[in-house]
Write a structure and sequence with these properties.
There is one protein chain. The chain has 348 residues and is an all-beta fold. The strands form seven sheets. Strands 1, 28, 29, 30 and 31 form a five-stranded antiparallel sheet that branches. A hairpin with a 4-residue loop joins strand 2 and strand 3. The protein is globular, with a radius of gyration of 19 Å. The two termini are 16 Å apart.
Length: 348
């Protein structure tokens, strides 16, 4: 089997908090945490937390730290790597307000946009993405963008143009893509090119057959998403590439596992021609596995795997020529033992 990455190294370790959503810039890391006593295994597969931490030159810099009063802790979402080594993220303080921001590797934040929602209706942070030094976010089912230094936002996709309720958003040099629960039923992927043309990239009309979610967007315009199917009491997820011509190509597939197992959203990451994703593996889906696929060659390789009875893996993330993820080790009762961030160089 071809190896796409070098030997992973531990970049950070803690026994006091669950780690979710690690990201990497040019030598610097950002991640989300939930205190050991406030979280459980569900945190690991999420994109949320109550603390955002940036690690720069070996020093941990708290950017957001809001004590968790109601589980699941969901004060901050992100971080998403930007091309200049800063990170985009979103924060929500229910009943008070929220914002989308960019934080430098040194921990200095710039508010990109204030939440336009009625403060009394704010419940969770906005969906957020980044392309270069542009931050993209969803507010009231409208997709906006603005420079990470702030400025007047640009409306990219109106709620009517979105085709349904947006569930994820992605950005790249090619434009933006989003997954949505379609107004007409089912699920869909929409696309807005860098030139402004709108199109529907994929549709799954019957949720009893399949759903598509968690979109990522390659620089050549290929949209990547997770397609989930269920049949005969089993479920299965697949990483699917939807080309600019609309043709669908399955890159990787999980093993089938029980339909009654807790549903965990899986988010692919893409950089250049490489796509990384977390899938269920092993007999009956007893393992968490990270895989990588090459869009150009079709070759695939497993990066790492852990028994779910011993540990859980976060979704992978690309940045600065590396791929990063976290492993949260647990006891037989699902309590946290230790959480570590791993980093591996992506081979040419």
């Amino acid at each position: 089997m071809v190896a796409f990455v070098s030997t992973p190294v531990v970049a950070y370790s803690t026994t006091s908090a669950w780690i979710a959503a690690p990201a990497i810039g040019a030598g610097d890391f950002a991640w989300l945490e939930v205190a050991k006593e406030d979280g459980d295994v569900r945190v690991v597969a999420s994109f949320r937390g109550d603390r955002l931490v940036v690690r720069s030159a070996g020093t941990n810099i708290p950017v957001v730290h809001q004590p968790c009063t109601t589980m699941p802790c969901n004060t901050v979402q992100g971080p998403v790597t930007e091309s200049d080594s800063s990170f985009a993220y979103a924060v929500a303080f229910p009943g008070t307000g929220g914002f989308v921001a960019s934080v430098s590797a040194a921990g200095a934040s710039t508010v990109v946009a204030e939440d336009q929602t009625d403060p009394h209706e704010i419940a969770t942070p906005h969906l957020v993405a980044a392309a270069g030094t542009t931050v993209v976010w969803v507010d009231n089912n409208i997709i906006y963008s603005a420079p990470n230094t702030g400025g007047a936002p640009t409306t990219l996709v109106t709620s009517e143009q979105a085709g349904g309720t947006i569930t994820s958003v992605a950005a790249s040099a090619a434009g933006i893509a989003w997954a949505a629960k379609a107004t007409a039923g089912g699920t869909m992927i929409g696309f807005r090119s860098a030139a402004g043309a709108l199109s529907t990239r994929a549709v799954e009309p019957d949720t009893k057959v399949a759903t598509i979610y968690s979109v990522a967007l390659a620089d050549d315009g290929t949209a990547l998403a997770i397609r989930r199917t269920s049949a005969k009491g089993r479920q299965q997820t697949a990483l699917v590439a939807y080309g600019i011509d609309g043709a669908a190509r399955t890159l990787l597939t999980s093993v089938s596992f029980g339909k009654g197992d807790p549903f965990e959203v899986t988010r692919p990451a893409v950089a250049g021609s490489r796509v990384a994703v977390r899938l269920r593996g092993g007999k009956q889906g007893i393992s968490d596995e990270l895989w990588m696929a090459d869009l150009a060659t079709g070759k695939t390789s497993r990066i790492t795997a852990v028994p779910r009875s011993e540990a859980r893996l976060t979704d992978p993330s690309f940045g600065a020529g590396r791929v990063v993820w976290a492993r949260d080790d647990i006891t037989s009762r699902g309590r946290l033992l230790r959480a570590r961030i791993y980093s591996a160089a992506v081979k040419p």
